[in-house]
Request: fold
Amino acid sequence: MSSRCLVLCSGGLDSLLACAILTREKIDVTALHFEMGLGVSALARRFGIDASPHPVEQRVKSVGATFRAEPLRSDYLKVLLHPKHGYGSAANPCIDCHAYMFRTAKGIMEREGYDFIATGEVLGQRPMSQRRDALDIVAEEATLDNQIVRPLSAKLLPPTEAEKRGLFDREHLYDIEGRSRHRQMEMAKDFGLNDYPTPAGGCILTDDAFADKLREYRANTPEGDMTLEDLSLLSFGRHFRIDNNAKLILGRNALENGLLEHFKTGRIMIVPDYRKGPQGLLILPLNKAVDSEQCIRASASIIAFFSKEPVTVFPMKVLDASGERAVTVSADERDRAAAYKSINN
Ligand code: SF4
Reply:
């Protein structure tokens, strides 16, 4: 029976190459893809709005590996909010995030009998998470010392347990180091890989606009009230902090309007009764008495302000746990809503 391994797979070129190299060694490879559940595309998939095949799954299959998606658990919040090793350029706690992924992978490996874990990490490629000391920190924190195979840089690193056990031939691995992508692109050609994203694309935590929204959210939300669902809500829409510390999120297009519907439980949905314009999700602060009517009026005015409808009164529906009712915004109220500035754009 062949050996089995889990490859941490973002779907980028390096992790796909790691899968390809190990399948070439006749290893049964499962590509473990962490679903952050953040951003319009990921949420559209999660809620079945986008039923097309997962793009990472297609790429993984093309190199002969099996795809496995792993959702983030709520303990990821602690990693994001209090990273021991700090943030990268935005809200990306890359070293702690990698350690979290390795810990999760290790649990799966031990429960399900995989032989080792591998990644597409390249020594010295990323300033924060792929320095030699960062690779060691991650392995140590996940208690995976000497057990992580990094096929692209393996010849520059000490032999791992898997190599010592002879599960594959170390001589077939590589000695890539640094930021140039030249060798990886040559290898992609050799493996017949031509569909892969650019290296810069990807994680929303590296996005400055998301980091701004996260900072604002933290400043206004007691930590005990924070949830993964709130993080998903930070990853799309136009956000406003309005009266009574309430939060309003507007959809910026039809897809975002549709996504907001999936978060309405326990919140207030405000839907225009005219054709062109955003709908809004109103989030009242937990454990605090607030003037919800004032918040609804302010929200409806902002929604009207962003309407493209050539009218002077704006009829809307307000939907919450108690049912549905109507509210109307006048042109004056709409104009006064210009005073509310969005947290992002
Ligand atoms: S880029 Fe994003 S997903 Fe990747 S390690 Fe950093 S925070 Fe985690």
